[in-house]
Amino acid sequence: MSRHKDLAGAETAELQALVEQLLGLLGEDPTREGLLKTPERVAKALRFFTQGYQQDVEEVFNGALYSVKYDEMVVVRDIDFFSLCEHHLLPFYGKCHVAYIPNDRVVGLSKIPRLVEVFSRRLQVQERLTVQIAETLQEKLNPQGVAVVIEARHLCMMMRGVETPNAVAVTSSMHGVFLNQQKTREEFLTLIRRGSSGEVV
Description:
By secondary structure, this protein is of the alpha+beta class. The chain has two domains: about 45 residues, GTP cyclohydrolase I, N-terminal domain (GTP Cyclohydrolase I, Chain A, domain 1, Orthogonal Bundle), CATH 1.10.286; about 130 residues, 2-Layer Sandwich (GTP Cyclohydrolase I, domain 2), CATH 3.30.1130.10. Helix content is about 45%, strand content about 25%. The strands form two sheets. Strands 5-2-3-6-7 form a five-stranded mixed sheet, sandwiched between helices. The longest helix has 23 residues.
């Protein structure tokens, strides 16, 4: 067994112990039948939900950048994502819409949802997630512009606090021509809503 697997196993065991302690602090009996496997399940789930920390953005783009003479808008909309709010460790989820205008270089279309997944599978706030996706594309592609819009529901708003189950949070990050040219920005916003029933999330 490799040292990496040894460390991962030790960390998972530590996570399980913490979950078991948490159950006890909440007033539960961690030894009752229904909870016996819960610490193991929660530890595995948390590892999965935060796997973005172990993923490298460079690997996402590796070998997937191509020289192409194309200077019109590329849009990938309705990318489903799930993330964990860093304030309460509760999920938020929704749709991410991404566009860029190439500058003699494009990226494989499947890499854009992969990039969204890498950053969303970390403890996040929606604002940072939006900016990270946009800035990474701007850095790696050096396009004429990048636009990212995220529409999401937050369980921390739905289940606690203000308890607003129908609220949708919308964030955007615009670079280059999307920021400087209103017509380009409006074209993007129109495209991501085309065919929508009005509620994206």
